[in-house]
Amino acid sequence: MTYGNLAAQARARLETHYPPGEARAMVRVIFERLKGFTATDMAIKSDEEASDFIAGKVEQTVDRLIADEPIQYIFGVADFYGLEFKVTPDVLIPRPETAELVDMIVDENKERKELAVMDLCTGSGCIACSLARNLPFSNVSAVDFSDAKRKRGSSKNGSGFSTRRRVAHGRTNRCVRHHSQQPAVHS
User: Fold this and answer.
1) Strand (E) or helix (H) holding 108
2) What percent of the chain clears pLDDT 70, i.e. is strictly above it?
3) Distant-in-sequence, close-in-space partners of 49: CB < 8 Å, separation ≥ 6
4) C-alpha pair distances (Å), 35 with each of 29, 80, 124, 166
5) pLDDT in tens, 124-150
6) pTM of the full predicted structure?
7) Dihedrals φ, ψ of 42, to 5°?
8) CB 71, CB 10: distance < 8 Å
9) On the CB side of 81, how many CA atoms lie within 13 Å of its CA?
10) pLDDT in tens, 59-90
11) Contact (CB, 8 A) for 142 and 130
């Protein structure tokens, strides 16, 4: 089966459960995550044969999506504010409304030279890490009091920042952006 046929088949199955635009977007994400394909790659490689392994992975992913499992949990990542965050079913998937909150905080504080932010119940750490990346002189700490096993996503997400520290009965990732370096989120 070609990549084009595989994508069309996945899209048709998803359209029985999701609106057409959402189904198309999901198929793009599936091929991006499984093969690293961009939309251009899909157009160029649509006549190439897909391996049985990839065909099976696409089918499994579509089955999980039809069972209402979020695509972010299936692949273990969520895009937020231009960054990629590790997510598990133990943390909330970042929402567009959360990006609006980050926008508001960045807009209101972009001129401040010293800013300390504490993100309590950080979950994936998307707010803390996005603020640390976008507020040039900020000191951002992220705290979550769930056990380390449940919050392995937020721990990994903060690992690209320069310092970490522990807090009693919980875990804190301290995201600090130094103006001399650009922090990166673990991907």
Assistant:
1) helix 96-109
2) 78
3) 1, 2, 3
4) 10, 21, 25, 37
5) 899 999 999 998 778 888 888 776 534
6) 0.77
7) -60, -40
8) no
9) 27
10) 999 999 999 999 999 999 999 999 999 999 98
11) no
